[in-house]
Amino acid sequence: MAGCAHCGAALTVVGNQVGRRDTCPVCSEDLHSCRNCRHHDATVAKQCKEPFAEVPADKDEANFCEFFQLGEGGHTDRAARDALFAAAEALFKKG
């Protein structure tokens, strides 16, 4: 299931039909953005696995990319993520 890359909310999008002006119903962030795309990968050049894409400078704002496909990268287990952050804070807490 697809998820918002900003807040992790599950998205019910049928047939990958995401318009440029569509926003997340939970956090109101743009859905047609690099961070919500299945081709987005922070570990590769231009942070995009699609070699022919013209990658915009701002990965969070809506764009006109023709290769956009809504990905699952944002759909995370919030409880697990919160537990990891709490453990990291406890580890590095100044006492």
Defining key terms:
95 residues; 15% helix; little secondary structure
Largest sheet: none
State which percent range the strand residues make up.
Answer: under 5%
Strand/helix succession: H
Structural class: little secondary structure
How far apart the termini lie comes to 42 Å
Q: What is the overall shape? A: globular
List the helices and strands and how they pair.
Elements: H1 78-91
Could you walk me through the main structural features you see in this protein, from its secondary elements to its overall organization?
With 95 residues, this protein is largely without helices or strands. It has one domain. The chain has one helix spanning 78-91. The longest helix is centred in the last third of the chain and has 14 residues, at 78-91. The radius of gyration is 15 Å and the shape is globular. The termini are far apart. The mean pLDDT is 85.
Overview in brief:
It is built from one helix and no strands. The chain is low in regular secondary structure and 95 residues long.
